[in-house]
Structures are given as structure tokens and as C-alpha cells.
Amino acid sequence: SPDSSALLISARPYRDRTDERTVLYDLELDQLTTVIDDYALALQWLPDGERFVFRSTAALGDSILIKSDVYIGNKSGLDYHPLTKLDVNTLETPEGANLTMLFLGSTIWSSDEQRVFFSVSDEPFAALPELIYSVDLAGNLRFEADLIDFYTDTTVWPPKIIEILVDTADGNLYIITETEHQMGDAYYIWTVFRHEIDGNTSLVFEYNFPIRESYQLIKAYDVSPNRRLLALGGDGFHNVAGMLRVIDLLTGEVVVQH
Q: How far is CA 91 from the centre of its chain?
């Protein structure tokens, strides 16, 4: 929580979906309280420290997710309800984005404490495509961005959104993505986009892996306390050492590389 007095924990017993739940651990009282009788994904505290947003899912078989919405809840556990009721047949999408199913990715509360930003894709583990939407506390949905516009016909997969970050100073969103190409100068690409509050989206950082044997997946990321620097950590394949890049989000400059 913002005041470091509590933790939100989603629990899923191994191979047993009958006792999924989300609990609040009060660090001062050393006490656990169930706040949601379900497994909550992408939990994010609101700045007031009393409420939080999350995405809920239903399952098909053992692991495939078939429905997801953004919810808001509070520490008491007495009131949690959906902010979205997404429907593939009515969701506003850009031209050419023919969604057949809906899967939510990253969920984040905006810096002005008025909107929740999240990504939507067509498949649970891929990005076909990934779009950015936001919703306010009254449930009003708004389309924000389509990152596929930044990629060419050589892209094997549209950009997979790893995380959506909010710049608390100016309210801009920073969107971390990775994607695979099949030809040209890059086999695999890391990118960071800036989505401004006026709706403009621009490229901040891009790193190209030229050959299959050298590419790495983004496995870790973090932002400095002043929200200025972003660290990206990669996991190497084929006996390739992992990679670290620290990026200045305002300039796009790489200030640390390892």
C-alpha cells in the first residue's frame, strides 16, 4: 500500500481452483483478511491507500483465460465491482483490428486518479493486436492508442505489451513492448513508447536484436523513484548473458548498459 501498512496478495493453490482468493495482510496487526473470493490479477493500489484496481478472469480448461474485466475494490472487502463490462461485439476498435476474444493485460491507475489504463489483446499469451484503453470510475470507456501503427509488414507479431507505467509528474504513459520480426535488420525488438495525455504516441527507445541466437525476452523492469529512469533486464538464450539497459524516459538516452 502507499503507506506501507498493508499488502494485497492473490493466492491460487497448486492445481486447485476451488480456493482462489485475494487477501489483505495488515503488517501492523499481523492479520490476514479475505477481501475478494477470487484470484485478482494486476493488483494496483490507488493513491488514497484505501482502494485498489485489478482485473478478474474466468478460466477455460486449466489455464486459458476467456473473460476479463477491470474491477475496483477496497480494503474492507465489502464492495468490489466491475468498472468495465467488455464485449467483443460492442468494443470500439480501430479499423483493421478484428477482435474475436478479449484478454486484458496490464492494469494501471492514472496519475490524476481519475482513469484506469489497460491493454486489450485477442489472445491470452500473444498480441493480436494489443490496444490501449482507459475507463473512469463511472465506467466510461475510452480508446487510447493502437501500437500496431508503429510496426511494418515484416512484424511477425504485433507488439506484446509488457507493462504500462504512469509518469506521476506529467501524467504521460510509458508503454514497454517487445515483438518479433521476420526480415530486415532486426529479429527481435524492445521498445518504449510515450503516450501523452493529449493522445499523441511517440517512440522513446528501441533496441534491435539482429539474429535469432542473440535475442532476449524482457524479464524484469523498474522505474526510479523520480520516475525519470527506466531499467529493463533481459534473459539470454543459447548461452548468451542477460542484458541490462537503463533509459532516460525524457530523452530516450541509454545511461547504463551491461
A: 19
